[in-house]
Specification:
By secondary structure, the protein is mostly helical. The chain contains 6 helices and 3 strands. β2 and β3 (about 95-100) form a beta hairpin. The longest helix is centred in the first third of the chain and has 30 residues, at about 5-30. The relative contact order is 0.12.
């Protein structure tokens, strides 16, 4: 493998990751009728031990989303009566985000479709493939979180998307 081919692999990998995220968002909206962030919020709030809710800050950290993005999603979900923000029992200034009864019913009704979605999305993966892929995605997430580039040589313009695949 040439040096150019070796250098193109990371670009191809990150571009494919970018594309995969976009396909996931499109397919979730099309097939489930909700956004990927709404799906993640419902899943996060439905976990055992979170029946009383979770703080907004903890939810942003768990989902790895911006405060602005999450706030907009929560407003839509509140409008649909799937979540509510309630006073924190230990801090009158803070609020907890929790599923409503209607939100729990909605989440429970989605479960069959979610598992069909998973099954079809991973149809080309064996169990071992899925476990390995999860392992590698976790490693990638950790490594991405520890990136610290030298800012003295920052380019004049930046793009939010990886370069296109050759």
């Amino acid at each position: 493998m040439t040096a150019i081919e070796t250098k193109s692999i990371p670009n191809r990998l990150f571009f494919r990751l970018f594309q995969t995220g976009n396909v996931l968002q499109r397919q979730v909206q099309k097939e489930m009728g909700i956004s990927t962030v709404q799906w993640a919020v419902l899943g996060a709030l439905s976990r055992p031990g979170y029946e009383d809710g979770i703080s907004f800050n903890q939810l942003t950290e768990y989902l790895v989303v911006s405060r602005q993005s999450l706030d907009g999603v929560l407003k839509r979900m509140e409008r649909d009566h799937h979540v509510e923000r309630v006073p924190h029992p230990d801090d009158g200034r803070a609020r907890l985000v929790r599923l409503t009864g209607q939100g729990r019913t909605y989440w429970d009704a989605l479960q069959q479709r979610i598992y069909q979605f998973y099954e079809q999305g991973l149809k080309g993966f064996s169990f071992d493939d899925s476990v390995n892929f999860l392992h590698y995605l976790s490693k990638l997430q950790t490594d991405l979180g520890s990136i610290a580039l030298d800012r003295t040589e920052a380019p004049a313009e930046s793009s939010s998307a990886p370069a296109t695949e050759p």
